[in-house]
Amino acid sequence: MYSCSKLSFKRLSSSLAFKRAPFYEVFPSKKLVNRLLFEMDSKLTFSKLYPVYESVYNSLDVGHTERCFPVSFKGEDVMMMKKVLEKLRHRTKSVNRNLRDLENELLENAAELGDNDAISVLSFNVITNSDKNTPEDVSHAQKLIKSLYQMHHPLTIKLTADFAFASEDFSNAEKYYKLFLDSEKDTYRAGEVNGQLGKISFKKPDLKEAEKYFLESIRLCPLEQVVQSYYHLAQLYMDSEPVKARCLMESAASEGFKESFQLLGFLEMNYFQNLQKALQWFKLGMELFDFECFIGYFDCCMKLKSFQKAKNCLKSMQKLSETNEVSKESFQIFVNSRHDQINSLALYSKNVVADTSLFLHADRTTTDSPIEKESRWNL
Amino acid sequence: MIRFRSVNVRSYSSLRKLATSSLVAVDSAKCFQQSLSDNSTLAKLAKAYKTGKFGVAASNTEMFDDLNSDRSLPLVRFPKLQVFEEVQNDPKVGDWRKPATKWFRLGKKLLKMYLNGIKDTWRVFYDSRKVLQKIGNSQSIITLTYRDLEFQEIQNRIKPGSPVRLAITRRELQEIYRRQELWKLPAFFVLLLIFEETLPVICFLVPSLVPWNCLTPGAYKKLSERRIVSQSLLPFYQLPTSSPSYTPPYALELSHTTDLLKRFKMLSKTKAYLYSWSENRTRLGELLAQFHQYLVLDDWLLLQSILNTDQKTILSEKELVNAILDRQLYRPGEDLNYLTSNEIGRKMLIWRLIVYWSFRFQGTAVTGGSKTFSELWGVNNIGVLNCPGTQQLIDESILSVIEG
Question: InterPro entries attached here (chain A) (predicted)?
């Protein structure tokens, strides 16, 4: 009795604490939605969809959203509405809690209206999170997947392959991805599948085949969906065509792909000899605490003779190495390999206050390191 | 796998320095013996040369196999002496008309050489077109093949067993590289019509107008003299005493890059002017990288044949001269055709090639190592472009030290 009242109180408090923002504040602009609909070659328009989105959104906390849809709407139309939100999430690289709830609701409604894509997605969601679902749900989901697979439903085949890929069963993943490509060759999904096949070939390794798949992937899909294909292709071209590799890597970086910053920085610094540009790439990487970027930044500063910046970078690296074991090891290698440069930094120090204070407090400090002769004041 | 490779081993890595091969010491017999024990590639190549696994074909043998494409290369010996001797020993020709017959037959021989040269230039162009259709377009064929080589070497390292095989042979690679000579034919044909028998004189005076396989040894020497001037612009030349450091194509001055490319026949004067005027460094850098890749591929194909196949690798005299010219392994004033024609000179040239390969390819997959060329030296490292691999080029005195 006590626990029951406690639970209802919790629900009440949480519902009071979370109040959904008005729909017009959450929903993206008309221009953006229209563009997404155009990209997906949809027959539906913004003016037709907006009231439906709004009514589903407003009924989220109430339940029973079936009545929100016009009679003419089929499962695939609802699925299209869901895909608009999904694309928006990919494009903005941000997740809005309200829109995510709306997306889930639309997915469930599409499944209830008999859309096979939605049924497939929901069934795989149940299987991947089997620990959070009842055994009955899991077995039902398995049955649904089996029947969809027997119908050669493309998305089910793709999701089966994705499932195998996630479980590191690459041979089965490859088999199913290829099966998917037999039914769909020139869609966005085919682009994604080509990207996945590229990764599998990359692991084998069959690099020529990987190149072919990645090229096909970037031909079919917009950048934001296949950033990894751009990145991997850039790596394949790094030795033979650095100019092409730079272009591809810049595309990946424009989508905020973290690993691309350091490679771009080193490419600009060592190969193209463009130190200013390299410095900018390293800065971006440093904001994400990429240790290699710190090293690149230090080297760049030394080449540009920006000794104060190099010194600050060195301090940051030292701090970073204290917090992380991997960084600590890298820092040690770095210090050994740049021993002369680090020593020479002391000669160019402009940090007069710090040096003087060090001198003044030298007698009080009990550190093992004596004051270097190479300091600015020749102490 | 690739990511690790790209981050930690290549030239643009941050923590570890590139492991480079050291120069081959040939100052004394003891130093050379030391080099033989230090550099396994040098030992293997020296053994292959001494046992006859690798060599140069006897003179006047026209070769057309997977390695050699003599039809696309110029004469090594000027036929004057041969023709004069034939006339001198010909009993059908009376003594009183021998001097005139000698010159007449020489002219006829040269004319025949030009006509054959024109035909061969067309054949090379036509045959190489078929190869290009099989693989890709001519602009990127070298880069494509270079990439294919890298891919196969990496795959072979991870999963040993599948031998590295390129889609083209050395002859095909060379003919693709030399096929551009076709565009000289119209102008050359006009010259032939205008000057007729005095054409050899014109060819000697302006050798750059002549298709490559129509050059006389004199004109060839003139061109080789022009080309060797550009050697001083190469990065390794600035540091003759130490091992070359990593230098990308973009590290060179713009004027140096254009000069080098003109000498390597990679850039016409008009294009060079346009690129310099527009300061298009990217295209020039790419072209220089492409020349570097062409040499790596050519070296690789030869080394693969010498070290990793059972049959003998026999280079023709013409190919030997051309290989030395491409890699600038000669001094100003040296006549490569003359050197190839005598035994000591030929040995010198072969040893120069052997030392050059030993320096560049020690530790790479083709010589039994584990790294690809880019992993060893860095991406398109112009620092090792045409570096002879020794402090000084091998001459007669050094040859006696090497051969004992």
Answer: TPR-like_helical_dom_sf
Kindly state whether B256 is in contact with chain A, defined as any CB-CB distance less than 8 angstroms. no
CB B28 within 8 A of CB B394: no
Q: How confident is the model at residue A350 (pLDDT cuts 50, 70, 90)?
A: low
Whether residue A14 has pLDDT greater than 60: no
In a domain, A91, yes or no: yes
Q: Which residue of B has its CA nearest to A241?
A: B143
Provide the domain limits for residue A365. Answer: 293-379
CA distance to A221, B49, B174, B238, per residue, from B56 (Å): 54, 10, 18, 33
CA distance A238 to chain B (A): 8
The Cα A51–Cα A57 span in angstroms is 10
What residues are paired with A340 via a beta bridge? none
Q: Is residue B326 part of a domain?
A: yes
In this prediction the pTM is 0.84
Whether A55 is covered by a domain: the verdict is: yes
Which pLDDT does position A16 carry in this prediction?
47
Inter-chain residue contact A239 with B374, CB threshold 8 Å: yes
Residue of B nearest to A211 (CA): B151
Per-residue pLDDT reduced to its tens digit, A199-238: 999 998 999 999 999 999 999 998 988 999 999 999 999 9
| Residues of chain B predicted below pLDDT 70 | 1-21, 59-61, 137-139, 239-242
Q: Is B16 part of the contact surface with chain A (CB cutoff 8 Å)?
A: yes
Contact A223, A255 (CB under 8 A): yes
Q: How far apart are the first and last CA of chain B?
A: 47
pLDDT (tens digit, 9 = 90+) per residue, A25-49?
889 899 999 999 998 888 888 999 9
- Distance from C-alpha of B287 to C-alpha of B249, rounded to nearest angstrom: 9
* Tokens of residue B391, six digits: 């402090």
pLDDT higher than 60, residue A5: no
For B250, which of A263, A273, A333 is closest by C-beta distance?
Answer: A273
Q: Which of A126, A142, A173 is the last residue of a domain?
A: A126
Residue where a domain terminates, one of A95, A126, A157: A126
Q: CB–CB of A337 and B143 under 8 A?
A: no
Please give the tally of structural domains in chain B: 1
- In SS3 terms, B89-122 reads as CCCCCCHHHHHHHHHHHHHHHHHHHHHHHHHHHH
Q: Which ipTM score applies to this complex? A: 0.87
Does any domain span residue A176?
A: no
pLDDT at A374: 39
Cα gap B378→B248, rounded to integer Å: 9
Choose among B262, B184, B196, B201: nearest CA to B226. Answer: B262
Per-residue pLDDT, averaged over A250-262, amounts to: 92
Beta strand B313-315 pairing with B54-56: parallel
Residue B1 lies in a domain: no
Question: pLDDT tens digit string along A302-329?
Answer: 999 888 899 999 999 999 888 888 888 8
Domain assignment of residue A171, yes or no = no
Q: What is the pLDDT averaged over residues A335-350?
A: 79
Of B2, B17, B380, the CB nearest to A337: B17
Find the domain containing B290 and state its range. Answer: 9-403
Give the residue on B whose Cα is nearest the Cα of A329. Answer: B15
d(CA B227, CA B211): 16
